[in-house]
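FORM 7B: Structural annotation worksheet

SECTION A. Query
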Amino acid sequence: MVNLFKCGNDGLNSVDDGKRGGTVSNSNIPRPTTELLRAAARLSAKQREVLGALKKFPEGARVDELSDALGMHVNTIRGHLDELIQDGIVFSIPAAAGGRGRPRQVYFARSPRQDSVATEYISLVEVLAQLLPDSDGNTAREAGRAWARRATAGLPPERRMGELVSRLREMGFDPRLRDGGNEVGLHACPFITAGGQRPAPAICVMHEGYLQEVCASEAVSLFPFDRPGQCGVRFGTTPADTPGV
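SECTION B. Predicted structure
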């Protein structure tokens, strides 16, 4: 097993031979995971294939191992790995010395699977939502409002409504206008599990607070599961009209 960490007098230091992409210049803090995800999204099909194979080697892989796994020439594999290192998605360290000559490199993937990241943090949000103290949803709704204020910082009020559907799509809700554009149907939800388990009620209330803050209106409500296979966002209604989950 290759040791990815070395301990010194100053604590635990990660070994990183790859170049870091992105805009973070402070070497004293970890790289934002969002940079890794964005870089991975820009890869070519062949680069994704090599990266996918590399992720199946949690203890790292040599070029010849990836060549055998993918049926590609070692020079082709090495070229793709060099590009992935330049993009900051892969790093390498020298393998343990096994004889004379230049030591071979062992390569490691840096970027996670997007669905794995989402699943872990959705679980965290669910746990935090269950710890909210009140049962009437005020704390959850205010948390959603605070979340929206951070997300919409610097966004002019006249643009907020136009941003709503775009934001919902980026958040994973698969929004579609319905009823002549007076409502938005949400055809997906990040908090619905693969087995169909519904989110905690506080999660829906939190998102309702988010929507109200983005639209700068109390008369926006989220109606969970109001139609088969979707939830509804309605305008001109009040939170008191919102049915329970």
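SECTION C. Observations
The two ends are 49 Å apart (CA to CA). The chain has two domains: 33-96+104-109, 115-236.

SECTION D. Sign-off
Analyst initials: ____
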